[in-house]
Amino acid sequence: MIMTSPGRDGPHGSGDAIGSLKTARISGQEEPSGEREVAADSLRELPRWLRLYFYGMHGVTLDIMLSSLQRLLQYRDPKLVGFSSPYLCIMHSLTHFALEKIYSRKRCFRGRPVVFHLVFYPSVYIGLQILIGNINTLTEQVKMVSGTQLAVHYILALYFTQVFHRGMSKLQYHPASSCPAGPSRKPVTEESAHARLPLHGLPGFVRFLFYGMQGFLDEVLFTAVFNLVEKSDRTLSGHTSLWSFLMYGSCSFVVEKLYLHLHFSRGWGTLRRLPIYICFIYAWEFCWGLVLRQFDACSWDYSHYPHNFMGLITLLYLPGWVCLSLYQDVLSNVLLRITCRKYVNEISDDENREVNGKLEKKRL
User: Fold this and answer.
1) Nearest 5°: phi and psi at 82?
2) What is the pLDDT of residue 134?
3) How far apart are CA 344 and CA 352, in angstroms?
4) In this structure, are residues 112 and 251 in contact, taking their beta carbons and an 8 Å threshold?
5) Taking the alpha carbons of 60, 66, 67, 71 in that order, is the dihedral positive or negative?
6) How many whole angstroms separate alpha carbon 73 and alpha carbon 333?
7) How far is residue 118's CA from residue 112's CA, in Å, rounded to a whole number?
8) d(CA 165, CA 362)
């Protein structure tokens, strides 16, 4: 009462009191900013193992896209089936990593960026792709590359320099060791759990793309192992459909939301969440298959498997869905620790403007 009554204490006493209150408020409001600065300082570049993982998925995705579009042009097949293999996944991880190192040396072409982006990098990229395509046949006949393939590789090289590498360089990782650990005996609340995570994770659209690529990789690995066991196919060739990208991407995105809500808000354990995951996955697969079948675009048929329903879902794959559901939680935790550098900068700029605005008001 005394500090808010300027008429009784005079200008000097009231000014000091009000100034102290404003200082306390501003300092109290700057505390979260300090915590955010600490969180931002703990961000670092993506670990090498995570980059290699991304690179393998990205390479498999390009394989599926190119091969499915080629089949579409040749056979007009609405199933949009594409091909890749675990071997190609490993090769893409290594070649992407090599291309990353080459891209990091672009400063050597500082005075000639056009030479780097339009000549040097595309030449290296095309050479690596030709090597991947012929490494299996080095002891036989070397495959010839057509003009169309060279044009496609050149366009992809431009995509790598202008989009892919730039996007990857903006990603940062928040390691678990740098997150504040809460009391072990207290129940995990949503606020305390999210306090251990980065300020802003990846946008939803980027996470959708990641889950779609992960679905491609899962399908290729499964069909490659299936062909090896059932058909003794030692080439480890796997296949999937472009429609699977949309199906897996959307399904995993929803399951991630379920994980965040059930785990952080309700505190449900894995065994309680798992049945909900499985029911949703089966319902999602059935709905997608039912719609795609109307256009003769459904790439799977379980009619010859036991315990199937309309040939669209089968209990035979239940162990696989259980494993993927458990792995989904792991992927969600990893993605929640990845953020984009521009979002951190935008947050810092907004906070600086907010504090500066309050200081200007205080001076007035």
Assistant:
1) -130, 170
2) 73
3) 12
4) no
5) positive
6) 40
7) 10
8) 45
Per-residue pLDDT tens over the stretch 183-200: 333 444 444 444 444 445
> CA 283, CA 301: separation in Å to the nearest integer?
16
Token representation of residue 212 = 């779609």
Radius of gyration of the chain (CA): 27
The amino acid that residue 265 corresponds to is S
pLDDT of res. 143: 66
Enter the tokens of residue 138: 């080095």
CA distances, 200 to each of 45, 76, 277 (Å): 15, 43, 25
Average of per-residue pLDDT across 207-221: 95
DSSP-H helix ranges across the chain: 6-41, 48-75, 86-104, 113-115, 121-134, 147-159, 165-169, 190-195, 204-231, 242-259, 270-293, 318-335, 341-363
CA-CA-CA-CA torsion sign (360, 361, 363, 364): positive
| Number of other CB atoms surrounding residue 236 within 10 Å | 18
Q: What is the pLDDT of residue 231?
A: 84
DSSP state of 305: S
Are the CB atoms for 6 and 133 separated by under 8 Å?
Answer: no
Would you mind telling me the total number of residues written for the chain in this entry?
364
State residue 268 phi and psi, 5-degree precision: -75, 140
Summarised one tens digit per residue, pLDDT across range 113-124 is 899 999 999 999
User: DSSP code of 178?
Assistant: G
Residue labelled with tokens 């990846």: 202
Selection from 166, 161, 155 nearest residue 114 by Cα: 161
CA distance 12 to 224: 81
pLDDT tens-place string over residues 259-283: 999 999 999 999 999 999 999 999 9
What is the pLDDT confidence band of residue 342, given thresholds at 50, 70 and 90? low
Q: Torsion angle of alpha carbons 337, 343, 344, 347, nearest 10°?
A: -130
Distance CA 358, CA 21 (A): 13
pLDDT band at 132 (very low <50, low <70, confident <90, very high): confident
